[in-house]
Design goal:
InterPro entries: Homeodomain-like_sf, HTH_AraC, Tscrpt_reg_AraC-type_HTH. Keywords: DNA-binding, Transcription, Transcription regulation. With 298 residues, the protein is an alpha+beta fold. The strands form 2 sheets. The protein has a 5-stranded mixed beta sheet with strand order 1-3-8-5-6. The N and C termini lie far apart (61 Å).
Length: 298
């Protein structure tokens, strides 16, 4: 197994890349100052955003690879591992990394909403591809953060740094929304494949052997991370992936209820419910009637 270098503090990562530590909890790292490296796998104890300027190898994240281009943003959450594989060739890294420790944002608005930035859980191959104009905005945000780090620390420093990080992340949300639309070719057919996947699932014996289909299961079958898949479905349909699955589940359930030769318990089991009571409760929440009432009405 490859060795993994663990970075628990901002200072450790700065030292690794020959950057000065201006603040113990946040840094804008100039990767061009780093020594030449290869095949390095790294585990971060903080939030990390890489802005890669040139291609220098294939990023590997978990079991997936990402053939990244110039000017892309890669987001890594605390505890995640990332590595670079380039057939053993040495390279000089170029680009910038924004890193900030979770302790920096404690007690702030950003801490309360950090989970909303779901791209920290995207797979590497779902990175953000920037246009020239977007890249300028990103650099502007980074320059403001860097300015505050180089400024003498005062009572305003933390607020201004965290506010600019939040602004940076909010721009990233906007750019991802744009990417969901402009990368239509890459995403083409995801919704149809999702529909086909659910149809095949309920026509098989998987509900009885696996249970109800989960968002994670569907995302894995479509080779997407759960968060990216969920965000993509939300943009396409206005509904969460879980809501979409439940709507499909109710459509199948309604059809099955018309078969009066089957009891409600049998239908519940066929759909993947462990307990008929759970099926009855979910059906009434979604349809407004119990399965027995719905059968009587129709």
């Amino acid at each position: 197994m490859d060795n993994v270098i663990n970075f628990d503090t901002v200072g450790q990562y700065n030292a690794f890349n020959n950057n000065e530590t201006l603040h113990p909890l946040v840094s804008v790292v100039d990767l061009s100052k780093s020594n030449r490296r290869h095949n390095a796998r790294q585990n971060f104890g903080f939030y990390t955003v890489f802005l890669k300027e040139i291609k220098c190898g294939d990023l590997k994240y978990g079991c997936n690879y990402y053939d990244y281009e110039e000017g892309t943003l890669v987001f890594i959450g605390p505890g995640q591992v990332i590595g670079i594989e380039n057939n053993g060739e040495y390279f000089q890294p170029h680009g910038t990394a924004l890193i900030f420790h979770p302790d920096l944002i404690k007690g702030t608005s950003l801490a309360r909403h950090i989970q909303d930035y779901s791209f920290f859980s995207y797979d590497i191959h779902e990175a953000l591809h920037l246009s020239e104009g977007e890249r300028k905005i990103i650099y502007d945000c980074l320059s403001k953060i860097k300015f505050e780090l180089e400024h003498a620390i005062d009572k305003h420093s933390k607020t201004l740094i965290v506010t600019n990080i939040e602004l940076f992340l909010n721009y990233c949300i906007r750019f991802y929304d744009r990417q969901f639309i402009t990368r239509e070719t890459a995403h083409k057919g995801i919704l149809q494949r999702f529909e086909d996947l659910l149809a095949e699932y309920f026509q098989s014996n998987k509900p009885q052997t696996i249970g109800l289909p989960s968002v994670t299961y569907c995302a894995e079958q479509l080779n997407l991370s759960s968060n990216y898949f969920g965000d993509l479905i939300k943009k396409e349909t206005g509904k969460s992936a879980q809501e979409y699955i439940q709507l499909k589940l109710m459509d199948v359930a309604k059809e099955k209820i018309f078969d009066k030769n089957k009891s409600v318990s049998e239908i519940a089991y066929e759909l993947g419910f462990k307990y008929p009571q759970h099926f009855t409760r979910v059906f009434k929440q979604r349809v407004g009637y119990t399965p027995v009432e719905y059968r009587s009405l129709n």
